[in-house]
Amino acid sequence: MITAASPSLRSYKFPANATVHGKLAAYLALRYSGNDSEYRPWQDIWPSREEFEAILPILWGKRARELLPEDAKALVAKQRHKLDADFDTLRPSIPSISKDLFTYTWLIVNTRTFYWDYPDLPRASPRLPKKRSLLTPDDCYAMCPFMDYFNHSDRGCETKHDAKGYYVYADRDYKAGAEIYVTYGTHTSSFLLVEYGFILWPRNAHDSLPLDHLLLPLLSPSQSAVLKEDGFYANYTLIPARRALGAGYAEESADDDDDDDGTEAATRAKQGVVTTTCHRTQAALRLLTLPARRYAAFVSGADEGTEAEQQVVDRYLCDVLKKYQRRIGDVKEEVEALDVDVDAKPRDADERPRAEQKETLLRRWTQIQRIVNAAVDDLGG
């Protein structure tokens, strides 16, 4: 296992202000070309740079990136900023490493790390916080080569770790020859695409739809200020009905959750029968549609609102989603009309999208279309 606390990595004395991600990428880049590297058997099963260029949006051509959903575009921009910042920080320490090789190993780290919170933290590394409460998610990276043999599913084996390493526990009995999966977490398909280069198709139990790109432009400056002051600005999410998540989910019941909070509508929402939105979204929608005093009562927790008010909120959101339905249809037409190039040159910003990129875009927009269509139906559209 490789972590920021590994003696072999620490021996390179990378800058103290370099991120754990950057240090791991620099370490792998420095060890990459050595035929006698202890990691050679592991490196031999890594995706090639050409394969990364086909599947990871950060390496796609301009036209394919333009057709990504809005949440995926934002994730790519954030990813690009992190990559560039890591290389700028580490470049003086790795003068022999090209940006191209660093990008490759940075993406190897990005697609192959696991959460690791340093069980022996006080002794782990002098460059890590001594208190667990001071660790950030960006500190908690580890690479475990054997774990590369497990692919992701929204349901899979349980993973645990301690000071000695990682453990994988089967979630059921497996027949010889059956593929065994782990789950990387409760991630949307857009997140999986940007971070790992794939989407779960046709079903992803953890998919959802961010609404910031639809709701934030509707807010006036004063409304934005109110939401920021109250802590309800941005991070709005549509939680899909179970039937919108792909084949199989519509038939699954939620009988394992028998608690009833007193209303049929609330119970149906909790069981995934209908589309719901997060509390933050409900707050923003109330500010957009109801008197200020009713919004204030909602965010204070004094009053959850009346059924009539909820209908007003639902109608407003339904109209917003209907407009987005038309946008989704337009984008899918653009994707379907793409002229693909199976022999596109690597890293050509003006290259025609590759066939697999076109297919991935169509699948992702189809997933989003299902979510939005089900939401419009549930909201009375």
TrEMBL record:
Pfam families xrefs: SET
Gene Ontology molecular-function annotations: protein-lysine N-methyltransferase activity
InterPro entries: SET_dom, SET_dom_sf, SETD3_SETD6_MTase
Domain SET: 7-185
Name of this chain's protein: SET domain-containing protein
